[in-house]
């Protein structure tokens, strides 16, 4: 089965953009290929891509870096690189936890954070954490560099702001967790290995200086809509409340009553998924609060 005619491995962003321009919409960006090639195979390989432009040899797209109070993660950084980053484990724990549960080791070794976002499915695990981190994406769109909130990358299920035949997603940028701040990610899966997650949840919290009250929170639960989003009403309800078990229980109930996941034959019924929203929010929020209060941060559930 032939999936492409020409395979290019540029080593600069300009080189990749020049190739995309040369093929005038006929070439396609590829990173790990764990979404793209699976889809191409499913189509039977009857329409091979005239060219694939592999972005994983471009050093600036494959780096995790500190930039003052910000952290940048290149679009070509693999899930395994993220899991192994002590910087991210400390300052963006939810991202490590979400990338650590993506597929199995083979998928994590080549699959990238950029591919997870550019594929534009509402339940991408890395995506869910980027939304809770309030990340921005640096892209080149229609030849122009732009910085956009990561949520704006999603136009609909499978529809991205970047046209992967012409544009490039370069990197993500977000604040590193400061003192009194922490994050966590948890996911509920069916027991079998290759299945769609029932729900994933990423949380970021900031407590006051006594670590006793919520000052701010961001909660991303997916998938509950066609694009990734935040539980705004739930986040607002946390502000000023004591960082205690009773608040967490109440907030989990609020999430359960205000979010409306659909029945999915591949995931679970709407009723079950709504029930699980309460369970996930309670567990994930409690973990983030514990981390913010103790400063004791060890990513959980991260695959080898
Ligand atoms: C067995 C299996 C299990 C999986 N399990 C999970 C899971 O548990 N959780 C999960 O979230 N995902 C899962 N996935 C999906 C997939 O592995 C991830 O979404 C991965 O992050 C995709 O990254 P990639 O580098 O392989 O993307 P690719 O397949 O290379 O690309 C995906 C799309 O993004 C475009 N693209 C990639 N990089 C760029 C860029 N820099 N600029 C512009 N466009 C770009 C491509 O053109 C393509 O349209 C699984 C996949 C498989 C095969």
If you had to describe this structure to a student in words, what would you say it looks like?
There is one protein chain. With 304 residues, the chain is of the alpha+beta class. The protein has three domains: 4-54, Uridine Diphospho-n-acetylenolpyruvylglucosamine Reductase, domain 2, CATH 3.30.43; 64-175, Uridine Diphospho-n-acetylenolpyruvylglucosamine Reductase, domain 3; 181-294, Enolase-like, domain 1 (2-Layer Sandwich), CATH 3.30.390. The chain has a five-stranded antiparallel sheet with strand order 4-5-10-6-7. The chain has a three-stranded parallel sheet with strand order 1-3-2, with helices on one face. It has a three-stranded antiparallel sheet with strand order 11-12-13, with helices on both faces. It has eleven helices and 13 strands. Helices cover 34% and strands 25% of the residues. The mean pLDDT is 95. Flavin-adenine dinucleotide (FAD) binds next to strand 2, helix 2, helix 7 and strand 10.
Write the layout of secondary structure elements.
Elements: E1 4-8, H1 13-23, E2 27-30, H2 36-42, E3 49-54, E4 64-67, E5 70-74, H3 79-84, H4 86-91, H5 93-99, H6 105-110, H7 113-118, H8 125-132, E6 136-141, E7 144-149, E8 154-156, E9 159-160, E10 168-175, E11 181-188, E12 199-207, E13 214-222, H9 232-238, H10 245-258, H11 270-294
Parallel strand pairs: 1-3, 2-3
Antiparallel strand pairs: 4-5, 5-10, 6-7, 6-10, 8-9, 11-12, 12-13
Helix pairs in contact: 5-8, 9-10, 10-11
Bound molecules: flavin-adenine dinucleotide.
Residues 28-36, 38, 55, 75, 101-103, 107, 111-112, 114-116, 118-119, 124-125, 162, 164, 168-169, 194 line the site of flavin-adenine dinucleotide.
